[in-house]
Automatic annotation (TrEMBL):
It comes from Flagellimonas hadalis. One of its GO terms (cellular component) is cytoplasm. Its EC number is 2.5.1.55. Residues 8-260 form the DAHP synthetase I/KDSA domain. GO terms for molecular function: 3-deoxy-8-phosphooctulonate synthase activity. Belongs to the KdsA family. Transmembrane segments: none annotated. Keywords: Cytoplasm, Transferase. NCBIfam families: KDO8P_synth, PRK05198.1. It comes from the Bacteria. This is 3-deoxy-8-phosphooctulonate synthase.
Length: 272
């Protein structure tokens, strides 16, 4: 997979890491456009190839009364508007086979959630759209096993696969990232580190997932130093009131400083 194949992606000659970032879920047009405008401005300044991220629906919620979305088509149209307005590609996750063709009409990258990445029919449906497929590594899977997930994509004739590590379950309520898996997975496809979901604290008794956002900088720096090709992070201008995953999202006001630091680290590594 060559990231230059992602439609509309910019700054691919900068030799910088690429970034998938945005809110956990599309809560409305104003919030999506506000976040996109800020991140595009920062990534243009730092010459970071950027893909806007937003879930058009949230199917994997802890509680039945949790926010799931504003309506599939409405959210997908907002993602398309972000792309058309700012000239950037977009990514959203899919949960059912029927989602693949529908979402492919609006976005450039289809993401397979970690807990569904072994679902062969879903992965194949995403691959058959011809879109880039971002495969989240299952929290229960080894790095080596992701070779087979990538093969499910490439066997359809679609060579556009990305692997994203989002941590491995460590006990019932914590995640851990084993950086030894990064070079292993890079043999199969470009590797992204999901720094915000890696810091989740799932399975809380309240039914609301927790997180450790204070460690986003630490996790990001470690990922760049370990040689990941890209980073994935969720960000919001008001995480405390976000409708999904607010506990582990990065406050948007902190993004520019973090990305500036990470770009400096990447520049140093490139010079070694």
């Amino acid at each position: 997979m060559d990231i230059t194949k992602i439609p509309q992606i910019k700054h691919t000659d900068s030799n910088n890491f690429f970034l998938l970032a945005g809110p956990c879920a599309i809560e409305g047009e104003d919030m999506a456009m506000r976040i996109a405008e800020t991140v595009v401005s920062i990534t243009d300044k730092l010459q970071i190839p950027y893909v806007f991220k937003g879930s058009f629906k949230k199917a994997n919620r802890s509680r039945i009364d949790s926010f799931t979305g504003i309506g599939d088509e409405k959210a997908l149209k907002i993602l398309k508007k972000v792309s058309d307005t700012f000239g950037v590609p977009t990514v959203t996750d899919i949960h059912e086979i029927s989602d693949a063709a529908m979402a492919a009409e609006y976005v450039d990258v289809l993401q397979i959630p970690a807990f569904l990445v072994r679902q062969t029919d879903l992965v194949v449906a995403a691959a058959e759209t011809g879109k880039v497929v971002n495969l989240k590594k299952g929290q229960f899977m080894s790095p080596e096993s992701m070779k087979h997930a990538v093969t499910k994509v490439t066997e359809t004739g679609n060579e556009q696969a990305i692997i994203t590590d989002r941590g491995t379950m460590f006990g019932y309520q914590d995640m851990i990232v084993d950086f030894r898996g990064i070079p292993t997975m890079k043999q199969y496809a470009p590797v992204v580190l999901d720094v915000t979901h890696s810091l989740q604290q799932p399975n809380q008794s309240s039914g609301v997932t927790g997180g450790r956002p204070a460690l986003i900088g630490t996790m990001s720096r470690a990922g760049i130093a370990a040689g990941v090709d890209g980073l994935f992070m969720e960000t919001h201008f008001d995480p405390a009131n976000a409708k999904s995953d607010g506990a582990n999202m990065l406050d948007l006001s902190l993004l520019e400083k973090l990305l500036t630091d990470l770009t400096a680290i990447r520049t140093t590594i490139n010079s070694l």
